[in-house]
Design brief:
Layout (H helix, E strand, L loop, with lengths): L2 H15 L1 E5 L6 E11 L2 E12 L7 E11 L18 E4 L8 E10 L3 E10 L4 E4 L1 H4 L11 E3 L4 E8 L3 E10 L2 E11 L7 E10 L2 E10 L3
């Protein structure tokens, strides 16, 4: 077999492993084309190319490239899905800094708590009309937290959840100050205590710049 044949064979294998997805219902203003480096069976991983289009526009107004991602094929077909222990969407358009404009999150793998889905956050810039990466908001969708954070639009607050094993569960709540999330509340439910009927709930609130702690005990759920 010739060298050219092997090059053609290698190219065909590479192209067949790549996969493209079109996401049209995640936003009323934008369409998204996603190209991932490789898909095998029901799992995709590798480099990620995200093209952002204004509705019905023939060309993207912004292209974002990630070195690595990982998600299930089914997740690329989900819209606004944030199941904490289940599949989550690979892109979200939501207002994270409460300025009235939708921001963007993109799945960059499974780098949150317990190998859960993780996201990079991009805030919409009115000055450039593009999405700009934000590390402070990205930190809420990575590390110890369990997947994508939740948004309380009415109260203009964000909530992120974490846990340790079966019996320690924590909720952190944030407001947005200076275009950055600021933690103002932490609630820890501890079922590891030697009390078969009760759970200890420790609440920490930021009040006038100082953390205040209260502890109470509640009946265990049956």
């Amino acid at each position: 077999m010739t060298k050219a044949f092997f090059l053609i064979l290698l190219l065909s294998i590479t192209l067949s492993a790549q996969r493209k997805f079109e996401i049209k219902n995640a936003s009323k203003n934008y369409d998204v084309h996603v190209e991932v480096g490789r898909c095998e069976g029901e799992s995709c991983s590798g480099r990620l190319k995200v093209e952002l289009f204004k509705k019905s526009a023939p060309k993207p107004f912004q292209v974002i490239n990630l070195d690595e991602t990982e998600f299930a094929v089914e997740e690329a077909q989900l819209i606004d899905s944030k199941g904490m222990y289940n599949y989550q969407s690979i892109v979200f358009f939501e207002d994270y800094n409460f300025d009235g404009a939708a921001d963007l999150s993109i799945r960059d793998g499974n780098n949150s708590g317990y190998g859960g889905p993780s996201y990079r956050i991009y805030l919409f810039s009115p000055r450039t009309s593009k999405f700009v990466f934000s590390q402070p908001f990205t930190d809420l969708g990575q590390g110890e937290y369990l997947g994508m954070f939740q948004i309380d639009r009415r109260r203009k607050k964000l909530r992120a959840y974490s846990k340790s094993g079966c019996c320690l569960h924590r909720m952190d709540e944030f407001i947005v100050v200076g275009n950055r999330p600021k933690k103002i509340l932490e609630v820890l439910e501890d079922a590891t205590i030697a009390d078969e009927k009760r759970v200890r709930v420790t609440t920490k609130r930021l009040i006038k710049g100082r953390w205040r702690t209260t502890v109470k005990y509640v009946r265990r759920a049956k």
